[in-house]
Write a structure and sequence with these properties.
mainly alpha; 4-stranded antiparallel sheet; 28 helices; flat
Length: 560
Amino acid sequence: MSNTLGFGRDDLRRLAGARSFERGIGYLSCVSALEIGERTITATVDGTDVYEVELTEHEDGLTGCCDCPYGQEGNFCKHCVAVGLAILQQSESVPKHRAAAASRGRQLSTWLETRSRDELLALVKEHIAADRDLRHRLELRASAAGGDPSALRERILALLDTRPFARYGYVEYADARAYGLQAAEAVSALRTLTETGRATEAVQVARDAIEALARAYGEIDDSDGTIGDVANGLAAAHLQACLVSHPDPEQTADWLVDLHLRDLSHATDIRLSEYADVLNAAGLARAHDRAAGALRENPKDWAAKDLMEQLLRMEGSVDALIALHAADLAPSGATQLLIAQELERAGRPAEALEWAERGLREADPDHGPETRLVDFACERYIRAGRLTDVVRIRREVLLHHRSLAAYQHLRTAARAASCWDETERTRALDALRADTRPRKSLGSPGSALVDALLDDGDHDAAWAAATEGYADGRQWLALADRSREHRPAEALVVYLRLINPLLTRTGDATYERLIKLLISVRTCHRALGTEDTYTTYMTALRTDQKRKRKLAALLDHHGL
């Protein structure tokens, strides 16, 4: 069966994760009321309750929405998987259904276009009488086109009031979408104000609306960005009104500065550069004076610093921007990196590298150096052919931050410099060994030494280090998985040891992990020629775990 959809089983598994995908298979027979649109697929799924599911195909992939508790948290849930699988089963008929949906849409458009003004008005009135929300939205737009300004302001602010949607003072994810749809009407009303010649009124109402939403934003779960889109819409409506009405530049500057200094710009992320044509020289000078005053009063005020940074960028004052950053250097070297990047953008690469090197020297080992700073310096050294300097830096990083990533970076740099020999490797491994402590249990953190040896493919040395007590459960599993063809007996011991604590637990995640380990146990016994021992082990395990019906079903499914 050919797939005429833009997604397949692998896409559903990737979106949902292995566990939700497997669960979704079990809900395939619970899908009903399947409806295929041009871009959307809707259905209901009978689970703990009856859930509504909508899948949408975009150019960049598939998204899914479900009103089950897990889906309301923004996850691609098992019900979404079930609907996706259901539609894949009938993928050959999808083009026909989509063509029919498109035809119905064209038919509706044609029918509406041929109605008279009176007929359309009667139709709208009919729906207004039956749909209170629609009536309120249209009333708002009518007010924006020519109503009382103060009454309109109150109605727009009411749209942004979170109280009707808040549970215990907080708008949860499940309610944020409905709130966002309501709040979006405020954006439409503000645009209508400007488009109907009332841009001056729109400026002030938009300011009030932006501040109201900004104050409430921290009490909303905006995981999918819906409210952020509304906030950006309010900001765009305000800017549009300013460009049309040309409000006083200094007053506009004061409002923008106050918005930043009172930490009310986080929801909209309004940038001063967007208002350059509104502020002109007088407004920018006013904003500069306000930001400078705030910094004099409190040099650590990050909002004032961000504001000044925006202004200096607009002015093109690179040296002043560097001085601003240099006044407060972070112990990780992150500030030196910021300065280096500014200098490189300004066409001053030599100074940029000097600041990067300074950051490497001055970084506190407990906090840095910042990984991006190390990469910045190393990339510039590589361009200049200074490969030994790259190796030197990577060695220093490994000594202070003993990790697999640091080891891999050093190995790559040393190979490029043709100095990754046994002496260099031994020195690097000794650095990792110096940070190792015997692990008292499988739950203790593992050592980067074992990870590095595994990464090198040196399984014998990795086994030796693990046997000395320097491996955690994850590393033992990785070692067993990579070595079971050559060391089936040793790998078998590892798998059995990892299985034992799982036998006292329940839950889908536990069962999935247990199944994988049991499959590996079977592989080891087959390699050893001890299938009878495996059969005896599984018989005893099934007897011991017989009350776990879901586990028994999974064992049957995998032939264990």
